[in-house]
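Reviewer 2 asked us to include a model.

Predict the structure of this chain.
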Amino acid sequence: MQRIAPTAFMLIVFLSVSLVAGFFPASVQRTVVSSDGTHIKLNRPFPVTGMSGIVIHNFGNQLEAVTGYIAQSAADGSAQLVLKEIIHHDELPSIKTPLARGDKVLGGYLYDTVLLLAPDAETYAKITDHTKKHWIHPDLFAMFLSTRGDAYPTRENLLQFAREYQVGLVYLVKRNSAVLLDPISGRIVGKKSFKHTPAKAQYPFYMRFDTFKTGIFSDSGKGDYYKSMERF
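Predicted model (structure tokens):
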């Protein structure tokens, strides 16, 4: 058996870590340089078009508040307001301050909090054991879908789940590839090859429940996982 030199081994490890790190866009801080309240321009572009971020307005006297969610729409740093209300609460008033020049922007907000949808338990474990993120277990999303009566993931229910559970990214394993969905913008912000995906996949995705007793989700074992992932 041929031995690998220590320097070569370290290079392999470094390249592996770099490839994983490059799959996840880095969170960044930017500034609004112009805005009409809906369309804005950043002082520098986000790393990826489609990345979302929160806008923070400074009211003075050390008082700041989040005034909206934006998503980059072009590589030149152009962006659009996509959500005005960050967290809904019936007892709290919504902030009506418009986006303005000088506002701070945190791009990739909560990108370390990730929901992973995988075809089986082995694939799920392989990803979560080797990638340091705050993983949201798919069981939680499965229960969320059950209460809605939804049969499979969609951009709309992933958006609602992300807002309620403060999820920044959705990691979707397809057949021989993987993508990162920003649920706020609804755009794919990362893509890579993913070899050795299993031929048999749990539908609608890996979770620790066999079926649900109520709602459309009671037929959860009768679909095609990979086909459903092609919607994204």
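The helical segments are 6-23, 121-130, 138-148, 155-165, 225-229. The chain has two domains: 28-107, 113-229. We have added this to the supplementary material.
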